[in-house]
Q: What sequence folds into this?
C-alpha cells in the first residue's frame, strides 16, 4: 500500500482591510425626501445645513489634527491614539451625512462622532506602526495620492455609475417605497471604497485600498 500524499497547505487568508463601512438598508423610505428629479435631494440638502455647518468646523480641526499626526508619525512611527479616534469620528459623521444625501437611509445624522449613532457603521483598526515616508509632513499625502491614481480613476468611474443608480432608485422609491437592494449594495460599496481611499490618503492606514466594493 502506498501512503496517501499529504494535501498541499492551504494558502493563508489575507487580513481583512482595516477600514470598514456598512450602511443599513431600510425596507421603507420616505417618498417626499427621496422624490426624483432633484426635489428630494434639494429637501435633504436644506435639512442637512445645520449638520453640515458643524461638520465643516470639525473638518477644519481635523486638518490641524492630521498635520500634527504626521509630525508625530515622523518622530515616533505612530499616530497618537486620541487624535486617531477624533479623526475617525469626524470621518464617521461625514459618511453618515453622505449616506443621508445619497438617499441610502432616511435617518437624520446625529450630531455625534460616536459609533452606533446612525445606521452607517464606520470603523478603522488602530495601526501599531505607520510609514514615516508615506506619511511625511506636507509631502506624504502627495506621495500617497500619486500611488493611489489608478484607484482614484477607477473610483471616479464607479461613482458615475453610483449616481446613475441613485437617480433610478429615487423613481423606485417613489413607486415602491424602497431602494432596490442590488442598487443599494452597489452605492454603499462605492462609498466604502471612497472611505478606504480617504483613510489611506489621510494616514489612518498604510494598506493600499483594494479595488473592491465589498
A:
Amino acid at each position: 500500500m502506498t501512503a496517501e500524499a499529504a494535501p498541499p497547505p492551504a494558502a493563508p487568508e489575507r487580513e481583512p482591510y482595516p477600514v470598514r463601512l456598512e450602511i443599513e438598508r431600510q425596507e421603507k423610505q420616505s417618498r417626499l425626501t427621496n422624490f426624483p428629479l432633484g426635489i428630494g435631494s434639494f429637501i435633504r440638502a436644506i435639512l442637512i445645513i445645520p449638520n453640515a455647518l458643524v461638520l465643516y468646523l470639525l473638518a477644519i480641526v481635523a486638518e490641524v489634527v492630521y498635520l500634527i499626526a504626521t509630525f508625530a508619525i515622523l518622530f515616533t512611527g505612530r499616530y497618537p491614539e486620541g487624535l486617531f479616534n477624533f479623526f475617525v469620528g469626524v470621518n464617521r459623521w461625514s459618511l453618515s451625512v453622505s449616506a443621508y444625501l445619497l438617499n441610502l437611509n432616511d435617518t437624520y445624522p446625529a450630531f455625534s462622532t460616536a459609533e452606533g449613532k446612525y445606521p452607517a457603521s464606520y470603523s478603522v483598526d488602530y495601526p501599531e506602526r505607520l510609514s514615516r515616508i508615506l506619511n511625511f509632513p506636507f509631502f506624504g499625502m502627495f506621495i500617497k495620492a500619486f500611488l493611489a491614481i489608478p484607484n482614484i480613476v477607477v473610483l471616479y468611474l464607479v461613482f458615475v455609475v453610483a449616481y446613475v443608480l441613485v437617480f433610478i432608485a429615487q423613481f423606485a422609491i417613489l413607486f415602491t417605497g424602497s431602494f432596490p437592494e442590488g442598487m443599494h449594495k452597489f452605492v454603499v460599496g462605492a462609498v466604502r471604497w471612497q472611505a478606504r481611499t480617504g483613510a489611506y490618503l489621510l494616514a489612518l492606514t498604510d494598506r493600499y485600498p483594494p479595488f473592491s466594493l465589498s
Q: What stands out?
A: The helical segments are 39-47, 49-76, 81-101, 140-147, 149-176, 181-201. DSSP finds six helices and two strands in the chain.
